[in-house]
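Propose amino acids for all 788 sites.
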């Protein structure tokens, strides 16, 4: 039976009733929050007036202590209440205009009554009867809404499975306290509401999808068993969206034990961070930590090296094809990303326990105090059963002790005397006071000239030695750079380490390239993680045990080596890896390439893989066109939202290309599209396109340094457009000249799948084979005449 007049009437009046109650509660809370706030200010201001301070006797001291503690407890209780009430107020303010988006009627087996469950972004109770007027979308019972159609239904409650019958599933679009749309749905989440959500224009910020979460996505969001959750999903299938709602879900479910800062999201680039940063606050939750893998590498290695970022690497891959030794670098990138290389580096550590360590000499003012050879001899004099890290610690201790002897040897040297003479009165005074402090209880006067000189000499020497001590304490005397270099310079060592694994092609060129770069204190992107890993396994892995959940978006861009590294970095965390193999644009092997390796990271029994095949971002026409570009694309299921077919426009000259694109942008703007991206293949093509087009139209160039992006016309390299979306995409030049090699296929696919509503491809010359091989009825084609 459809929705009747009576239903409309009842539902509308319920919305009014609930919003009135929320409004009332908001008013109450506003007063309460104001009052608690002034209480807190008062307590802070008069804190010391309210405590009795008396330290005459032991009893007085105890009493004073309790008095201060009592006052501090009152203050912290008020502050807690303030924070709680202010947070509730914020939630309710968010709820008041649209208190819910769904309803299910559910009768639990064994119960007489059917309950009406209204679902919104947070829960709200009727204060008098203490019944839920709105349930939080993350409550166990709310999963019925996402997982079932009317009929028999079950959900997992904390105490076990609950079974029953769902007699109704209703969806609402409520704006300004009024129902705008309402329908009963037979499918899990009705297409009407989804259609509404997907037809909107894109935004500079991602939106939450709680009202329309699909059943498969709900499996990702509510999965709390797997140690490793792998999500393989087509472009636009909602991987990032599911990940963010999952964060919100986990924060709700484990609210007593889990804080937002115990979750980390690794994003593809800084701009993406800003794109997703509003979703959680919109849901009333704090943002998790967000970072990029590159940021971490920079943080750990940036002081020693110029660390190449992944964008510089990909720019090389795309632009240096005709340069000498290009293929060798590609082979090197692939090998250094592999688990074979990871195993090699791990075995290398064992080898170093027996021989091969390289040290820097300990130098003072360019003079060698302890030679590298002496350190090495000392190192291998230790019992071989002592672990490498322990031996490094022992060496550290030994070096520090040797420095103490060194101090004695310098006491009467000329440089020390000169330094003492140069001490000004203030320094002299400070030195004297410091000596008094550190030598407390000892008989010190500055009357005795010899003693004074000795004391000052020691101080002067110690001060000079401070950076060297720090250097030693940080184990910098181990020459990790030389150790890493050895892997590429010592053929015998390499043969011993590689075991049965295959030697990469062009190995000798790869070695030369690696060594040359290291000599310039520069680390290629492919070397950064292995280098850091070697350092970590020698000095003891720096782990982060506070983090409980790690989310890796665009997981296909991480190598198996990087994944293994991340696992060690966060030993107590569960991992959610979201990716699409068809968007793996880097030269290294993608961790998703071999589906069997990922689950082995934590063991198959702790891993689960969920596949998303339905694509929500783009219109049916765009999906039908783009899915033909990739193997297995026929599995991708478009959502039934229609739009224009992608249009391919051929031009003969660059002038025609630019005038065509300018006219296109003007037309798209007239059609109401606000976010338009001109996607280029590389950063250099983007810079050229921008330089030419900005003379004729207002636009903005996105580079790897761009921290945020706005709703406007952008020129952007394809690899930076990862993860984001636009109303309309213009492919700057989709000619065969630009996109024809195997590795360019995924880049082209990634670029085209950024479009929500319109996809316009320009080709300067012959069209790319990735277009040509698509069925001709999936796109329209026209040729633009040269401008006269
Ligand atoms: N259940 C849903 N309800 C409404 N919108 C959805 C839903 N799932 C996905 N979307 C929308 O589809 C678009 C693509 O989602 P998202 O960016 O999460 O996909 P993705 O799989 O991470 O894409 P890509 O791999 O191409 O970057 C977004 O606009 C998102 O809001």
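Proposal:
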């Amino acid at each position: 039976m459809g929705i009747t007049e009576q239903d409309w009437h009842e539902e509308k009046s319920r919305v009014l009733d609930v919003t009135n109650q929320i409004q009332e509660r908001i008013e109450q809370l506003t007063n309460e929050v104001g009052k608690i706030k002034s209480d807190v200010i008062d307590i802070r201001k008069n804190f010391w007036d309210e405590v009795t301070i008396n330290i005459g006797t032991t009893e007085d001291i105890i009493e004073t202590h309790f008095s201060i503690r009592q006052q501090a407890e009152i203050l912290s209780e008020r502050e807690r209440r303030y924070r709680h009430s202010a947070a509730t107020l914020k939630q309710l303010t968010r709820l008041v205009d649209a208190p819910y988006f769904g309803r299910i009627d559910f009768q639990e087996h064994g119960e007489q009554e059917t309950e009406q469950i209204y679902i919104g972004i947070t829960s709200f109770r009727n204060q008098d009867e203490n019944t839920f007027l709105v349930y939080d979308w993350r409550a166990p019972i709310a999963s019925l809404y996402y997982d079932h159609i009317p009929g028999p239904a079950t959900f997992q409650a904390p105490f076990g499975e609950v079974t029953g019958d769902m007699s109704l599933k209703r969806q609402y679009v409520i704006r300004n306290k009024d129902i705008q749309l309402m329908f009963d749905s037979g499918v899990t989440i009705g297409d009407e509401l989804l259609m509404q959500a997907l037809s909107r224009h894109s935004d500079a910020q991602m939106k939450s999808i709680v009202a329309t979460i699909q059943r498969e996505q709900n499996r990702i969001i509510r999965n709390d068993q797997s140690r490793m959750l792998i999500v393989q999903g087509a472009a636009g299938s909602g991987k990032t969206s599911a990940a963010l709602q999952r964060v919100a879900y986990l924060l709700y479910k484990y609210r007593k034990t889990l804080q937002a800062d115990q979750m980390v999201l690794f994003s593809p680039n800084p701009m993406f961070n800003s794109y997703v940063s509003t979703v959680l606050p919109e849901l009333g939750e704090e943002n998790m930590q967000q970072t990029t893998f590159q940021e971490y590498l920079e943080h750990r290695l940036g002081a020693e090296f110029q660390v190449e970022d992944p964008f510089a690497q990909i720019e090389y891959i795309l632009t240096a094809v005709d340069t000498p030794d290009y293929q060798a670098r590609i082979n090197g990138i692939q090998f250094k990303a592999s688990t074979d290389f990871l195993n090699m580096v791990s075995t290398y550590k064992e080898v170093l326990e027996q021989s091969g360590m390289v040290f820097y000499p300990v130098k003072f003012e360019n003079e060698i105090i302890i030679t590298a050879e002496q350190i090495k001899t000392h190192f291998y004099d230790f019992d071989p059963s002592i672990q490498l890290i322990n031996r490094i610690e022992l060496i550290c201790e030994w070096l520090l002790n040797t420095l103490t002897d060194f101090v004695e040897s310098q006491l009467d040297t000329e440089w020390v005397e000169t330094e003492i003479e140069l001490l000004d009165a203030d320094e002299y005074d400070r030195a004297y006071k410091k000596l008094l402090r550190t030598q407390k209880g000892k008989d010190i006067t500055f009357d005795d000239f010899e003693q004074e000189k000795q004391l000052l000499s020691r101080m002067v020497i110690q001060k000079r030695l401070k950076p060297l001590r720090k250097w030693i304490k940080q184990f910098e005397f181990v020459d990790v750079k030389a150790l890493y270099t050895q892997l590429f310079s010592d053929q015998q060592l390499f043969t011993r380490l590689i075991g049965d694994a295959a030697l990469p092609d062009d190995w000798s060129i790869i070695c030369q390239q690696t060594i040359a770069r290291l000599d310039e204190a520069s680390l290629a992107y492919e070397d950064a993680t292995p280098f850091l890993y070697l350092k970590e396994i020698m000095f003891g892995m720096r782990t982060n045990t506070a983090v409980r959940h790690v989310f890796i978006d665009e997981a296909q861009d991480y190598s198996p080596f990087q994944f293994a590294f991340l696992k060690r970095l966060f030993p107590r965390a569960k991992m959610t890896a979201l990716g699409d193999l068809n968007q793996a644009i880097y030269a290294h092997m993608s961790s998703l390439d071999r589906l069997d390796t990922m689950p082995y990271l934590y063991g198959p029994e702790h891993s689960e893989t969920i596949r998303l095949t339905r694509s929500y971002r783009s219109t049916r026409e765009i999906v039908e066109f783009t899915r033909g570009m990739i193997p297995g694309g026929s599995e991708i299921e478009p959502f039934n939202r229609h739009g224009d077919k992608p249009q391919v426009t051929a031009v003969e000259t660059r002038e025609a290309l630019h005038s065509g694109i300018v006219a296109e942008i003007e037309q798209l703007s007239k059609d109401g599209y606000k976010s338009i991206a001109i996607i280029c293949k590389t950063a250099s093509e983007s810079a050229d396109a921008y330089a030419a087009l900005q003379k004729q139209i207002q636009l903005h160039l996105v580079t790897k340094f761009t921290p945020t992006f706005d709703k406007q016309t952008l020129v952007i390299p394809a690899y930076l457009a990862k993860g984001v979306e636009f109303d309309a995409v213009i492919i700057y030049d989709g000619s065969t000249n630009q996109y024809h090699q195997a590795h360019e296929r995924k880049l082209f696919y990634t670029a085209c799948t950024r479009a929500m509503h319109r996809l316009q491809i320009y080709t300067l010359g012959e069209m790319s084979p990735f277009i040509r091989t698509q069925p001709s009825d999936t796109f329209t084609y026209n040729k633009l005449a040269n401008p006269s």
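The pocket of adenosine-5'-triphosphate is lined by residues 194, 197-198, 207, 209, 212-214, 217, 233, 235-241, 580, 616-617, 723, 725, 753 (CB under 6 Å). The mean pLDDT is 88.
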